[in-house]
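Q: Got a minute? One more chain.
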Amino acid sequence: MSRKRLFLFNTAVLSVSSVLLRTAGLWFRSFITGRIGASGMGVYQLIFSIFLLGVTACTSGIGLAMTRLAAEGRGSLGCVRRCLGLALGLSFAAAGALCAGSGFIADRLIGAPAAARPLRILAAGLPFLACGACLKGYFYAHRNTVLPVLGDFWEQGVTVGLSVLLMDFSPLPPLEALMLGSTLGEAACLVYVVPAFLLYTRRNPPPRTGGDLRSVVRIAGPMLAGSFFRNALFSVENILIPVCLRKNGAGGTASLAQYGVMHGMVMPILTFPLAFLSAAASLLVPEIAAARAAGDPGAVRRTAGSAFRWTLRLGFPAAAVFLVFADGLGALFFGSPQAGRILRIMAPIAPLMYLDNVVDNMLKGLDQQVYSMAYNLTDSLMRVALISLAVPRFGLRAYLVILFASEIYNAALSIGRLLKVTALRVDVTEWIVLPAVTGGLLYYALLLLRALLFQGPVFPG
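A: Always. Here it is, folded:
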């Protein structure tokens, strides 16, 4: 199979699987919301925002290093062992820190003492998650998407199935049942991935040498440091939101409910179209890394240009769908009118949000992760500062404005850096104008269709 056909095949496999997994994830969130309510969803999101720090510490840089080194022909078994050893060491350290600090985090930061045990349960899954991410990075570097995708389906199935069973038939509180299901799903995924890796490398022997510890750390270090500090700020941001909403006049339960609606309901719907893009975005790292290593700047520019075009061709129509059907989507998945209203407000930023995600992956493939780290850190610092100042005074409306400003700032810097290092020239008409016009026409067509089918007003309220 030619390289282009292989890329298209892998993109199709990952796209279909990503859509199915995100659809299952939305259904699962809808199920959780029905059980624990909007305020419970707020606590659930806060727990995961803290847990994300542990995930970042043991996966963000190591997975990228494994993918980059293997794509450049340096993914020896010794390199894999070094990446796994580093991932395990970091995961045990992160798990220990989460367990030791779970009481303080639950009482003082989340404001829900019952969150301590769920945090400890999640921490136990970090070693499984770290090793799985490392081995999946190896598969992606070798343009093999089928094996890791099967692992993702297995993990999702185990997580959802066990979570539902534990909530229905175990004496565990709902949050603890959900976190135990998640941890067992991560363990089940590793049980699948390790034999798959051993079988794959037996049939496709890796190079004998390459990828020493210094190479791993050089790639993983900046990404790990940047991601960790950014996610630390992200956790601070998430903790601040309900605190600042309470200062604005919302009660404790109401502030958690508003936070749960925003991050537990609206954002999963808004980012759902990334299921179509995340496949190609993740595969861009090895593609661009290989082209860069081969000294082929033309291939890098062609790949980057195609990514720009297809991202905006999806982004503008997706925004049109959200603008027209926001109320219906909020009611369908979560039964929340507020989720629909916020989704409509956030819809115009969707194309830029998707483009920022894709560009970030391309920068990693071009060895520009230090710049990406700097942009993300300054963006996070700006958000924390603005939330602290504006949300206590203006409430949720201020937070929505901050999200818009943050996305524009981050995307502008990342896109500017990509254009500079690739010498890529922007085709404004083909990349921006035509997708925007297509999105606009789709918006009016959907308005008319909605009016005909549901006999509602032409323009959404």
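A: The first helix runs from residue 3 to 71.
Q: Perfect, thanks.
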